[in-house]
Amino acid sequence: MPAFYEQGFGNPKYVQTRPFTALYAQDTWQARPNLTLNYGLRYELDSQYGPLHTPKKNFGPRVSFSWDPFNDHKTVIRAGYGIFYSPIYAQIPGVVAVLGNVNDKRTIANTLVTILGAPTGNPAHPATSSAEIFQTLFLEGLTGNPTQNSIIGCGTPTAGQYACLTPALISQFGLTVANTGPLPPGTVLFAGQNNYKSPMSQQVSLGIEREIGAGFSVSANYVYVHTTHLPVAIDTNLLPGAPVGSGTGANGLPTNGLPFQDWGAPACVATPALCFADPTHTILQNNVYSSLATALYQGGIFELKKRFSNHFMVMANYTYSKALDEATDFNSDYSPFNATCLRCDRSVSDFDQRHKVVIAGVFESPWENSRILGGFQLSPVFNYNSGHPFNLLAGADINGDGHFTNDRPPGAPRNSGLGPNYYDFDMRLSRAFKLGEKASLQFTAEAFNLANHTNYASVNNIVGAAFAPPFKARGITPGTVLGGGTVVSPSTPLGFTAAFPKRQVQLGARFTF
């Protein structure tokens, strides 16, 4: 497993202040008795600090209307369009400030130590593994015990230092790590893209609602959201010239035989400048936070409602939707499998949910004056949704790009696994007792997952580099016996690892006066 070695000779303490300014103007115009228009404009200035760019063109116009086409107050058509911006994650400029190389200064000198060791640039001590560093410092009393200025817990650094590790301590491993001047071997950097932009979404909605009886209505709505400038970490040290290989990955790791671009190929070893922006391998990763990812969501919502009257109300809706994007998170652990082809990671989103059904109601006792049957209220809720996607991971750096957490089996699309469906039935029963003119006492009994259905929450998605098509994998219930007699456990590839809570019941009382 890889490990990060961070040397904090610089001062990691910094104050993060970020003014956020917004102006908004809107107006409503009743163009006709049955047609109302709304329009407005919002401007946002999300001021950034340090090396990150401040976007200054965040104008968000919005317009919508509601229309009663038959002028009978039974049908209404609503539509709207708007541009919306999201503030830039505060962690992005924060990480750039702490782990970046700004004017040849680094608050924290960050070095990646792989299982093969970190390059030291010292022929007498060519590589140092994370295990060697830990074991040596442990014997020297610097790890494992927070009361001894340990690295785990760290205690209190010595006077004049901002961290427990000092240049003198790590020099014994042949490592030279400094916070200023030339970069040390094995450096991992984080930077912000030039002209970084705020995430922006264009949102469109269109719906029609019709009253079909006393208190009953049906509606159909369409929602479209196109988002651009989403953050993603792109390792700009990787060049598109790396050759395409198959069969085995970096360090001879067997794969499923499908082609993939390989920065660990012999051609990259022989001619590093073909594959890496820094052919000296002084920089192992140059993660640039970039506003390059996009997303698209489309959904149709169909709903039936009965307004509360005659002691009950009912609501039922069904949503059919699809969400696509290229990035899960700006964290470099979720960077693209192939950093030179962001579009190759475009697939269904983590939160994609094709089908969702919700049915809920509130039923009151119609015998209001009965001492035995009056005061009761029953509130059932049923939820169903189809499974969320999950990513199939190789569990190793098969393409030799220096990233160990994002590699998939060759040929596997991002998020090609599909999680289990979710079913849930909740119930609430209450009864209220009047105590005079103003006081009342209410007892409640609530049950969650009343049917005690097992809903699995996560799956072991590390399937190995040799995992072969078809890639539309699903989770496997623990205890299932596979071919060859293997009994599925949470450690088995595709075995479920956790479940949502079983049936839960809670009782309560509320006194109002």
Unreliable stretches (pLDDT < 50, length at least 5) are: 1-10, 143-153
Count of DSSP strands: 25
What is the overall number of helices?
4
What number is the mean pLDDT?
87
For the largest beta-sheet, the strand count, sense and barrel status come to: 15 strands, mixed
Beta-strand content: 35-45%
> Which shape, going by the Cα principal axes?
globular
Secondary-structure-derived class? mainly beta
* Rg, nearest Å: 29 Å
Secondary-structure element series = EEEEEHEEEHHEEEEEHEEEEEEEEEEEE
N-to-C span = 62 Å
**Relative helix content:** under 10%
Structural description of this entry:
- Helices cover 6% and strands 41% of the residues.
- It has helices at 91-99, 130-139, 167-171, 266-270; strands at residues 3-7, 20-32, 35-46, 58-67, 75-85, 109-113, 118-119, 127-128, 187-192, 200-213, 216-235, 244-245, 260-261, 283-309, 312-325, 347-348, 355-364, 376-385, 389-390, 417-418, 422-435, 439-448, 456-459, 496-499, 504-512.
- The longest helix has 10 residues, at 130-139.
- The strands form 6 sheets. It has a 15-stranded mixed beta sheet that branches. A two-stranded antiparallel ribbon has the order 1-6.
- The chain has 513 residues and is mainly β.
